[in-house]
Write a structure and sequence with these properties.
binds 2-phosphoglycolic acid; 11 helices
Length: about 250
């Protein structure tokens, strides 16, 4: 059975003390999770080592990276590799976040390389994708999303999908306070699962967790997460406050 996941994307927020304070609070607040639920935070890479250390004393708080380079090592100033993540006990990574696509020019073909590099290192991929406002308005959003999946992920073997989580994030809903309606989220998640089914079959498609991201808050999480094809959320702004993040975690059940 696929798992429900709530993952916090801290983006480029929080200094050392703030990051440690938030992690300690989360560790203190998080209760035993049922078997089918996961909770993760994705701090800036400079905080990974200390957050992993604090989280290791928790009841299941996982830690993921926000990005990684496709090469194993080399002359890529400022970058971090999958091997480095792995060496700090980080076993998941966000790839393809819309901010990486928009500001750092990451496209589907580069992301395909990053996906391969992560999986080769045994790192789970949380692949982020979604349409921009103009694409929704001119009704190309289903095609855009299909291409983002096909070009970066559909070279994978069916067996590799047990290390891939999808995070559908309509760009117009990220950080804007304007969330997709539960019906819009369900409609796109069902589309994503049907595209997966067409290529990989029902068993594989049914096993993949598809998270929704974009202005998920304590007051809308329950309704969004209750949609049949929404398996949790990727949370930006609301992941920076223990109370809000834990309320969203509680909305998983
Ligand atoms: P938001 O960000 O929750 O602040 O909209 C979500 C994301 O970018 O992952």
């Amino acid at each position: 059975m696929r798992k429900k996941i709530v993952a916090g994307n801290w983006k480029m927020n929080l200094d050392k003390n703030q990051a440690l304070a938030l992690t300690n609070d989360l560790v203190d607040t998080l209760c035993d999770l049922p078997e089918h639920q996961r909770v993760m935070v994705c701090p800036p890479s400079i905080h990974l080592s200390s957050v992993v250390e604090v989280a290791s004393g928790s009841k299941g708080l996982e830690v993921g990276g926000q990005n990684m380079h496709q090469a194993r090592s080399g002359a890529y100033t400022g970058e971090i590799s999958g091997a480095m993540l792995k060496s700090y006990g980080v076993n998941s990574v966000l790839l393809g976040h819309s901010e990486r696509r928009a500001y750092f020019h990451e496209d589907n073909s580069l992301l395909r390389e990053k996906v391969d590099a992560a999986l080769a290192m045994g790192i789970e991929v949380i692949y982020c994708f979604g349409e921009i406002l103009e694409e929704r308005e001119n009704e190309t959003h289903f095609d855009v999303v299909s291409s983002q999946l096909q070009e970066a992920l559909f070279h994978l073997e069916a067996s590799q999908w047990n290390r891939v989580v999808l995070a559908y994030e309509p760009v117009w809903a990220i950080g804007t306070g304007r969330t997709a309606s539960p019906e819009q989220a369900q409609e796109m998640h069902a589309h994503i699962r049907s595209v997966l089914t067409d290529t990989y079959g029902t068993e594989c498609a049914d096993g993949v967790s598809i998270l929704y991201g974009g202005s998920v808050k304590p007051d809308n999480a329950k309704e969004i997460f209750s949609q049949p094809d929404v398996d949790g959320g990727l949370i930006g702004g609301a992941s920076l406050k223990t109370e809000d993040f834990m309320a969203i975690v509680a909305a998983m059940s």
